[in-house]
Amino acid sequence: MGFLTSDRAQRDGRVTFVQLLTGIAGFIAFSVIGGVLLAGLALPAVTVAGTAAKGSEQIFEALPKEFDNVKLPESSYIYASDGETLLATFYLQNRKVMPLEDISPWLQKAVVAVEDNRFWQHNGVDGEGLLRAAYYTFAADETQGASTITQQLVKNTLREAAEAAGDTEAAKAATEVSIERKIREWRLALAYEEKLNGIYGTVCTDDPKVDCGKEAVLEQYLNIAQFGPSVYGVEAAAQFYFGKSAKEINALEAATIAGITQNPSKWDPIRHPENNKKRRNVVLKRMRDQDMISNVEYVTWSRMNFEDYANVTYPKFSCAASGLAPFFCDYVTKIIRENEAFRGEGTDLLYRGGLKIVTTLDVNAQIAANEELIASVPPGDESGLAMALVALDNYTGNILAMSQNRSFDPASKAPNSTAINYAVDRKWGGSRGFSPGSSFKPVILAQWLATGHSLNQVVSGAEREWKLKDWRANCEGGGGYVGTWKPGNVEDSSARQQPVWLATANSVNTAYVAMAAQLDLCGIRDMAKTLGFHRADGAEFELVPSVTLGTQNASPLTMASVYQTFANRGVHCEPRAILSIQTLDGEPVHFADGSTVEPPPIVCAQVISSEIADGVGYGLQKVMTTGSGKRFQLSGRESAGKTGTSQHNAHTWFAGYTPQITSVVWMGNPDRDVPQQFIRINGTFYRYVYGSTVAGPTWKRFMDRALAGLEALPLPGASAAMLNGVPRAVPDLVTECLSEKDAQHIINDNGFLYDNAGVQLYSTQCPPGTVAAQSPAAGTMANPGQTVVYYMATDQRPSWWYNWPAGWDPMTPPLDWWGSGWPPVEWNTNPPNGWDPNPGPGPGGGDPGPGGPGPGGGGPGGLGG
């Protein structure tokens, strides 16, 4: 209430003696404190300047540094790669600073009319307004602050500077209700206008740009003032209430906006339209009284309701408002907050800095990803399964698409929504990751080729029990395994001996276990890291044999990054989300120390040879042409890919690429490992779900759309060295008289095919049922993939030992001859019936029979003898 009023005084018009004395004392104090200031208030600006020059500087107060350094918080905008498709807006204060020439003259007039109608006459403080305010303050039950536009600018500037510095006490002091604060505000207003007049001059022309001190004040005020609960500056107000720029605002709209700033909550046209209508009409009346609008316009417009002419356009505030790519948007904000490129200042820059952030997101690819995931597993599907897709540009690592089939809700309360980005690591707002299953096999293949093995090298796909103590891990933390392990095959695959490229095409688990058993687990771990693989939960890679089958949980983005390395011929590029960061005016953004903000750059390096990458790619191309991915071959272009199915079908994947784009699709229950067995997905019942069931078809549909319009480029083939490797020594099967099963494993484990000769050899050195001979002989150098023939031992002499078949060449040993020379020495005294070492002419005489060279070529030791 006023100094001379009270509730009782309002009722009966009387003033108590105490109130009278208090009021008189307050008025005297007010007059004394402000006396020196009031002496100059009625003087025009030029006179004040002249007085100051003559030594009356005490009228002014030295401007604090905030007036030079304060930067208004502005909204930041995140765009797709086209720089036009808005993903989301971020702000502490929804504001976009605009120059005066881009602000409608009607807005300028309306604000001046209602806030400070003598703005163009006074010098920062209005003497008439001050005396009027003093009267109301001391004599009536209402207050009038007599704050000019300049004074309000001073107050808001001090508050903004304090809030930016995190100084809550200073922010409170800038707005406290006190005579001392008010007088300081007056003195600063005088000083600030004096400073701006010195910069711009005092003569204002018709040029829409700022060319005088008064216009500079007005421009700053129109940008700093609040025009709604979360709306700051006239540009944000124009966009919010009318869906247009401040430059396009008409007189009625200007009156609506100008009326809000006195009390942004009370006069809010959305929540309190009737209140706003009354306040707007006050503004219209002031505009009419000052000959800005006609009486007809005033009468017509004053009858209108806000909803009759409004076009409320809510900003896409935060990623939750992004209909196109909310999870990618969230990932971008995490990069800005956490990536070292932003030095810990990223969040403040995002919410206060007025940034234009252009990301790597391709709009068409993102739309395709969104639609294809929903087509495969709609939100709320009875299966409860989630899907995620990530696509990368192979040459840069730029993220082109990042999508999932659930909506983004930071509170995770809306149906079929989540705050977790299934595509990324937990550090970036994702989950703990999912088992990639067979989609991890290319990592094993890369290490296989890097250690001298080849694609044509043969491995056994037979199921067998492995002794874990025999697995190698020659690094710290590896080895010491105990027990046995008998893995099986998940997807439809063949468990026979086969070349590695075929094992890759058919995704044969047992064959890949046989490959990994020949490698060092530490080498597999190191290759995985080299390719960009890491666990989504941040834990260390586990050195256990089961890593062969993709048991280390990873994110779809990580798996896409691994495959990108193969697609880019061994050049790995770190996934990248941000193309550029500028101010809204297109200028560089600066850190607090003045250095320029740069987003994380393209980081690419040759991590494996192109020959190895192309060799892996050859195997992945076979997946698409002859193996588990042949139904997903892309239309009119070559591709490479791999299915993935984890233990118990809990997570299913498809990862693949062309020369330009790599993409990965994951499907599973994101909360726990739930087998995708006997399940209905999108209305279709499945007994078992594999990577080729839903993920594969989704990948194909997405890639066909994402690649539309791009040139169909060929994929490189494999070199001779990758296909055939280098000659290897044939293993020894005879010395230890191996069992047939053991012999087959050893032959396959050394990269060769095996074949049983189909005949038994009499042996006195090896027990019946064991290997008695082989061809080629042990130690012979042969290319991987060649066939090693073995002969099984028997303790029974063949029938020809006793009866020589008619027509056989007596000088050619039979295939099952076990000795080192021919004929047998024993036959000198005891030949078989019908054997004649010197047959004459006659039927069959001299003709070679069905014998021929023995398994050892007739040479010494050919049969282990």
How would you briefly describe this protein structure?
Helix content is 35%, strand content 13%.
> What's the total number of strands?
26
Give the mean pLDDT: 88
Distance between the termini: 121 Å
Low-confidence stretches: 1-30, 36-57, 842-865
Radius of gyration: 43 Å
Strand order across the biggest sheet? 7-6-19-18-17
The amount of beta strand, in percent, is 5-15%
Q: Could you say which structural class the secondary elements and strand pairing correspond to? A: alpha+beta
Q: How many helices in DSSP terms?
A: 27
Structure description:
The protein has 865 residues and is α+β, with helices and mostly antiparallel strands. Helices cover 35% and strands 13% of the residues. It contains 27 helices and 26 strands. The strands form ten sheets. A five-stranded antiparallel sheet has the order 7-6-19-18-17, with helices on both faces. Strands 2-1-5-15 form a four-stranded mixed sheet. Strands 23-26-24 form a three-stranded mixed sheet. The radius of gyration is 43 Å and the shape is elongated. It starts with 6 loop residues before the first helix and ends in a 71-residue tail after the last strand.
Chart the SSEs and their pairings:
Blueprint: H1 7-12, H2 17-41, H3 45-53, H4 66-69, E1 76-79, E2 86-90, H5 105-115, H6 127-139, H7 149-164, H8 168-175, H9 179-200, H10 213-224, E3 226-228, E4 231-232, H11 234-242, H12 251-260, H13 273-289, H14 295-302, H15 306-309, H16 326-338, H17 346-352, E5 355-359, H18 363-376, E6 386-393, E7 399-404, E8 407-408, E9 417-418, H19 441-450, E10 458-459, E11 466-467, E12 484-485, E13 498-499, H20 500-505, H21 509-517, H22 521-531, H23 556-567, E14 571-573, E15 578-583, E16 604-606, H24 610-625, E17 640-645, E18 651-657, E19 661-668, E20 677-681, E21 684-688, H25 695-706, H26 720-724, E22 728-729, H27 740-749, E23 753-762, E24 771-775, E25 781-782, E26 787-794
Helix pairs in contact: 2-9, 5-12, 5-13, 7-8, 7-9, 7-10, 9-10, 12-13, 13-14, 18-25, 19-22, 19-24
